[in-house]
Amino acid sequence: GDREVMVARELTKRHEQIFRGTVKEAREACRDSLSDAQEKAADTGKAQIPLKGEFTIVLGPVSNKRPKAGDTEANLEELQERIRTELLTETPPSTSQLSKVLSKEFGVPRKVIYSQILAMEDDADQPGSAGDAGG
Q: GO molecular-function annotation terms (predicted)?
């Protein structure tokens, strides 16, 4: 939706047309040309991309937006649940391999995930760590 895109139609030809915007805006511009809304587009100033001829599409890089505070908490819980699930499999992956895979999946630094896995393994190895400590 928000990723930058450049759509070029009929490059190096007489009717060359270049559109720049977001993927969502490009989709709307194509949709407008399908709905025979040339008059409307001219009135509203919206760009149109006629769907005929040769096209070249260039996508911008994926943005690395930071998650919002609420999203981070939900992500942490989801990450911890995923670690638990992976550690409980019949043949769990190595800590290194698991941290590598989850780092890519969750967009969290590998070191952070590695530490989280070690902490969760330590908690699982200690009997009575769920609050049985006598006082």
A: methyltransferase activity
